[in-house]
Amino acid sequence: MRTLHIYSLLAVIPVFACPNNGQYQQQALKNAQCDRPNVVFILTDDQDTHLNSLDYMPHVKNHLLDQGTHFTKHYCTTAVCCPSRATLWTGKQSHNTNITDVSPPYGGYPKFVENGFNEKYLPVWLQQAGYNTYYTGKLFNAHSVNNYDDPAPAGFTNSDFLLDPFTYNYLNSTFQRKDEQPKSYEGRYSTDIVAQKAQDLLHDAVADGEPFFLTIAPIAPHGNIYMKEKSGGVGKEPMLGHSAPVSAKRHEHLFQDAKVPRTENFNPEVPSGANWLLELPQQTQENIDYNDHYHRQRLRSLQAVDELVDNIFIALEDYGILENTYVFYSSDNGFHIGQHRLQPGKSCGYEEDINVPLIVRGPGIAANYTTDIVTTHTDLAPTFLNLLGIPTRDDFDGTAIPVEREDIEAVAQRKREHVAVEYWGYAGGEGIFDSKFSFHSIEYHRLMVIETLHENNTYKAIRIAGAGYNIYYSIWCTNEHELYDMSVDPGQMHNLFPVISSNVSIAGYPLSKIVSRLDSLLLVLKSCSGEVCREPWKSLHPAGDVETLQDALAEEYDEFYGRRQATRVEFEYCWNGYVPEAEGPMWETDGLAFVKDGLPWYDWV
């Protein structure tokens, strides 16, 4: 047996879950479910695609990129932790979970429970289908030392969760193993603890001899949040400090020369974007130097994750189950540092924040293969069920991702081309150059956090990439619009919406023609559910003859869209959570989704 980098397997297990080699194969094959595959899902926190963090993870390259399929256009639909994770586990957009923030009243674990999802999400469905389920690391924000058993997260055979307010403290974390009291790990490195707990849970999963689903969710490369002394302010509230991520001691010396990629949109001379971004000052050299340091700390913090990945693959191979196990690697949301003059953070609709890693390896998955079909976090729950032979649900907003090469190529550039992006509330700047005191409600008591809150960060957007076009279109709650042709402007620097009436074009089409289609599609998607989310063009074209933007741009539909206003999506007012009264026109509530007396909506509205 090979030796793990940090840990060693604690024991030789007498019965293996669905092996395909080794001395225990004959015994394990007696298990009636032995042909059912296992899943290991590694979910990082705030990991980027566009800052090139994967380039600094050689074990991820060796085990996943070189041996699996990389989905380069995979997107989260809400670019912040808890709403994104709720979408991932339920297969529903945030406007359908109504979990739109990291803490109450609009989000967090208490909101997840309140809205009934503790009985209606992936681990519960997996258990109902005969899978054992295991989890270690971060589950949700506001899952805390005060509410971890009120109620306990449902659907897990065994678990060992990180708990707030210590979730993001790399050197003072608190974990809670199933049915046990929380335990503090002061002075120990969080990702190494997760790695050991993952090995322990994998050991248990294999020993049980049943097919399993194991989630490993380290906090890296999220920023470090730590408890400080009580402030002298109002009520002397407990105060949290926010610093750059912390690496394991053994990685502190790495990447001394690494810098944030100096792309066109990095700290531009002219403001870019819209809304509050246009007021951001250009960063000073001192600020840039700090942000490069923040970037290096993110890369260093990911090295322990990279070792974790290596150890998991070594263990899977030693247990004889690697060939019968799917391994997924992704992140809850992306991250920006310096793009559009932004301080370190997420919560925007730009590519850095919404485009996240997704790599899949397993039975039938092509090795060293890359695809640019568009996929989203709404698709992951149905994908897991589909791969494991479990019926998917009619109320899913997403669809199963084709993961085998032949199936991927069959759908390329057709139905899989759009992402519905949405956000409510504020954007928080992290780091020392965008800070002031603000209050958050975490785990039912107030904690003062050092960060800036950029208000009115509520928006709806579409990211669409198909045959001949590559576009981002958004509407803020201030009713400002953005439109980018990312085929020629990948950094989203030149907002085309102000020149919509000019002769500027995208993919050879006038901007007004493009916007009329995108705005109509966004009107459907902003309040869709179930099948309407999965096939939104059918709401506009019930005959089913339009499946993509390219189809909708056909000249025969010019009159159809020309009878509409150039844009219809608009907000009544800005709000920090999902409040239908603030959302403006709704497709499912204003009658536009129906045909009346044989006439389409535009002839009778």
From TrEMBL:
Enzyme class, UniProt record, top EC level: hydrolase
UniProt xrefs under Pfam families: Sulfatase
Coiled-coil parts of chain: none
Record PROSITE patterns: SULFATASE_1 (PS00523)
Alphabetized Gene3D superfamilies for the sequence: Alkaline Phosphatase, subunit A (3.40.720.10)
SUPFAM superfamilies: Alkaline phosphatase-like
Stated name of the protein: Arylsulfatase
